[in-house]
Amino acid sequence: MKNNRNVAHTQVEVPELPQCDFCKQNPLVLYQEAHYDGKTRMGPWANMCREHFKRFGVGLGLGKGQELILRETNNANQI
Hints:
- By secondary structure, this protein is mainly beta.
- The chain has one domain.
- The chain contains one helix and four strands; from the N terminus they run E-E-E-H-E.
- A four-stranded mixed beta sheet has the order 1-4-2-3, with helices on one face.
- The longest helix has 7 residues.
């Protein structure tokens, strides 16, 4: 991830991507990884896949949301 001052409010590294909060509410939808954690148009925050972020997200930045970036792991350091 870039060490840019603006990135601090728009991206965050995570060890694994969570499941989309919207997708997991519908048993007919296949598992979708969330790529965003943000405020929704309805008010509450949610982990959202790309499609649900487009539909319900309010944007990226301080007070809006962040893109979830999967942290690269170095298997050589893991025991």
